[in-house]
From TrEMBL:
Residues 39-170, 185-383 form the 7TM-DISM receptor extracellular domain. It holds the Pfam family 7TMR-DISM_7TM. Keywords: Membrane, Signal, Transmembrane, Transmembrane helix. The lineage of its organism: Bacteria, Pseudomonadati, Pseudomonadota, Gammaproteobacteria, Oceanospirillales. It comes from Marinomonas profundimaris. This is 7TM-DISM receptor extracellular domain-containing protein.
């Protein structure tokens, strides 16, 4: 039975071979014929054989049948000769054309020995000028003469240092026109999609000024050019240039690769999240750019395998980069990973079609462009999702519950506002008529209480506007620093308990709020008022802007600690305290949670805000009025600090003895400006004794920084001694400038606040 199966298999193979066409026939019923079905081929490796040698009986026996429609020879060293017999049997006088569909072929010679013996009839190819083509089409087309015998022989010689992939057909003019129209229609659709995506990227770039969209727009243009070169739609623009199609193809391919690399840097913000990978991407992108220049200048001098290797290596690296980013939960890495895997798989399949591993003409012609369009659509979906962050996922949370008390709140606020205005006017009149200090102090306290009532009315009105969705849009951008300063000043203006609030900001400079600035200011004020302590324990409020900008959306993080015991996460009461704060966070589409570290409870708030970064002109920034005083012996650490502070416009003084420093400070009321005092723990000075003698002479805005080499010195202990901050000598180069900015900012806020200089023990969460 087994032998019978083998015999059956051999018979089926022989039947297939013998049934194959041995002659290419074009008649009235057959308007197209693929040469691969009837032709045979021979490879002249040494490129030494002439046409006479190839046409001789000696080499005629060496031709092997093709037996495939799509001819894929891969990388061939030498000339590929193709021979077939042709019979034209049409009754109508229809032009018959020979079409070689392979734009990247460098040399193509056509011979008709039955008519012209050993004379070449057409010299085509990318290494020859486009003007050589008698029929100027994207593909190589040769018109079969009308005086051919009933059966004649056709010879083709193909040569290229690129992989040879060709589809050779005999067609009637009408058939060729229909096929060309289909190809142009599909090309137009793909180019139209790329153009639409490009316009969307330009819109995003104008809207956000983020270079990511501009780079991806350039990538889309490069893909369009790459597609046109694959179909040889650009050679006709340079009719007298040689290898122009290959040069533009190499430039477009490597430019697109370079654009993908730099787009990936900006899309995942690798400089912030993966700094080592960021340096690798910069190096790879630079190498791709340099190779683009090399392949444009001398494409025939560099092996095409080098280009393919660089493309594959870069895409593998970007895929690994996407997987690492997704594992590390880098923002927006999900869309990027899907897009990168799509491009990697699609390009790998397309590359195998080039080198003959996957014999598919459709994949070779359209696979790369379709893959890039799918990848671009995935990125575009991610961009749209980033434009409206958390919109879908938080739609339910952002909808505040409707309450029947809306009308009551509106009526209550209007009635209270009239009475508050009357009380405020009366207090202003009494303040002008008051003479004794006790009366003035009483009136000041009453006006503070009246301001608190006004603030409660503002909360009621804001809560009512949120419920009715009747908030007015923000007219002008507002700087984030100005918003924070206003919120802090309002909290101090409303304070009735001499509470201590320490406000620290990070990366808030040059930031303009474009939307919901009033809501954000109310939130900061409410956090300061509701979470304050009625003891000497300070409330620390840190405000940090993160650099994950997408379409102008930035995450603003607010951290408050330590929280009073009266603050709970599960607060179901409808009040103007925690419930009001929760409403503001939900309206801003933010997240919040309470955490506990030891005995310290803290609240963390994440808010997506729409911002614009506006660089400031340093010449227009007035110098800070606070003086800088250095106290300590001259050593390497003090000299290092002086070199760091020289760039500042502040006045700098240096004292080596405590007595001279005390004489300079004198009494607080005789000094016109505040000071930032840097106390160096050297030369035998005892920090706590130094601070005890400095404290009575310090103004409200004065700040004292302890710089110590003592590794056992902690920030909590330094705070307990009365210092505002602590800095290790080893951190002078990296942290002193940032620390000075924080202390000067804090001093400005405390300038008009009557706060005590006593700093209690600080507990970190």
């Amino acid at each position: 039975m087994f032998y019978r199966l083998i015999l059956l298999f051999l018979l089926s193979i022989s039947n297939t071979v013998w049934s194959a066409s041995t002659i290419a026939i074009i008649d009235d019923s057959n308007n197209a014929f693929n040469i691969g079905e009837s032709g045979s081929y021979f490879i002249d490796v040494d490129q030494t054989l002439s046409f006479d040698n190839i046409a001789s009986d000696k080499y005629a026996k060496r031709f092997r049948p093709l037996n495939r429609d799509y001819l894929q020879f891969g990388m061939v060293k030498g000339n590929v000769w193709i021979r077939t017999d042709v019979a034209i049997r049409t009754t109508r006088k229809t032009p018959i054309l020979l079409e070689i569909h392979y734009p990247r072929l460098q040399y193509l010679d056509i011979y008709l020995p039955n008519l012209y013996e050993n004379q070449v009839q057409a010299e085509l190819g990318g290494a020859r000028p486009y003007s050589n083509r008698k029929i100027q089409t994207p593909n190589y087309v040769f018109s079969i003469p009308t005086n051919t015998p009933p059966v004649f022989t056709l010879y083709l010689r193909l040569s290229s240092h690129l992989p040879i992939n060709a589809e050779i057909e005999l067609k009637t003019l009408s058939k060729m026109s229909i096929d060309a129209q289909k190809d142009l229609t599909f090309t137009g659709i793909l180019i139209g999609i790329l153009l639409t995506l490009f316009v969307c990227n330009v819109f995003f770039f104008i809207k956000t000024s983020h270079p990511m969209y501009l780079i991806y727009g350039a990538l889309l243009i490069g893909i369009a050019i790459l597609h046109l070169t694959l179909h040889d739609q650009v050679s006709q623009l340079f009719p007298n240039q040689t290898n122009i199609q290959e040069r533009i193809y190499n430039l477009a391919a490597l430019s697109c690769l370079c654009a993908i690399v730099f787009f990936s840097r900006l899309y995942l913000d690798t400089k912030e999240h993966m700094p080592r990978m960021d340096k690798v991407l910069i190096a790879i992108g630079t190498i791709d750019a340099l190779l683009a220049i090399v392949f444009v200048i001398a494409p025939e001098q560099v092996n095409i395998l080098a280009l393919s290797f660089m493309v594959v290596f870069t895409l593998i690296l970007l895929t690994v980069h996407a997987i690492i980013a997704f594992i590390n939960s880098v923002p927006f890495s999900g869309y990027y990973l899907v897009a990168r895997l799509t491009l990697f798989c699609g390009h790998f399949a397309w590359l195998m079609s080039i080198y003959g591993i996957i014999p598919s003409a459709t994949l070779f012609e359209w696979g790369l462009t379709v893959t890039i369009i799918i990848e671009a659509m995935i990125h575009f979906t991610g961009m749209m999702a980033q434009t409206t962050p958390l919109l879908q996922r938080r739609s339910e949370k952002s909808k505040l519950p409707q309450n029947d008390m809306t009308d009551l709140l509106s009526d209550l606020s209007s009635r209270l506002r009239r009475q508050i205005n009357i009380i405020g006017g009366g207090l202003s009149h009494l303040e002008q008529a008051a003479t004794s200090n006790d009366t003035k102090l009483f009136i000041t306290s009453s006006m503070t209480a009246n301001n608190n009532l006004k603030n409660l009315i503002e909360r009621i009105e804001l809560l009512n506007d949120i419920k009715e969705n009747s908030l007015t849009e923000q007219a002008h951008p507002l700087t984030l620093d100005q918003l924070i300063d206003t919120a802090y000043s309002n909290a101090q203006r409303l304070d009735q308990d001499n509470t201590l609030i320490e406000l620290n900001t990070y990366k808030t400079h040059q930031v303009e709020i474009l939307q919901n600035a009033a809501i954000l200011q109310h939130l900061i004020e409410s956090l300061a008022q509701e979470f304050k302590h009625f003891t000497d324990q300070p409330l620390t409020l840190n405000i940090t802007r993160h650099d994950t900008n997408r379409d102008g959306i930035t995450i603003l993080e607010l951290t408050c600690y330590p929280l009073p015991t009266r603050i709970h996460e599960n607060n179901a009461n409808f009040d103007l305290g925690m419930h009001y704060i929760t409403h503001l966070i939900q309206y801003l589409k933010g997240e919040w949670h309470l955490s506990e570290n030891g005995h310290t409870r803290s609240m963390n708030i994440q808010l997506p805000i729409r911002v614009h970064i506006r660089p400031l002109n340093n010449d227009l920034i007035p110098p800070n009025p606070l003086d800088i005083i250095l106290f300590g012996q001259e050593d390497n650490d003090l000299q290092k600090a002086l070199s760091v502070l020289q760039a500042r416009a502040n006045k700098i003084e240096h004292f080596t003895t405590l007595e001279s420093l005390l004489d300079y400070l004198d009494l607080p009321e005789k000094r016109k400006t505040g000071s930032i005092i840097l106390v160096f723990d050297n030369g035998g000075h005892i920090p706590h004794i130094t601070q005890q003698r400095l404290l009575p002479l310090m103004r409200n805005e004065d700040q004292c920084l302890l710089i110590s080499n003592n590794v056992k010195m902690s920030l909590d202990y330094a705070k307990k001694l009365g210092f505002d901050e602590l800095l290790a000598c080893s951190e002078l180069d990296s942290q002193l400038e940032h620390m000075m900015s924080r202390l000067i900012q804090k001093g400005d806020r405390l300038k008009n606040a009557s706060l005590s200089r006593i700093n209690p023990l600080r507990k970190t969460p």
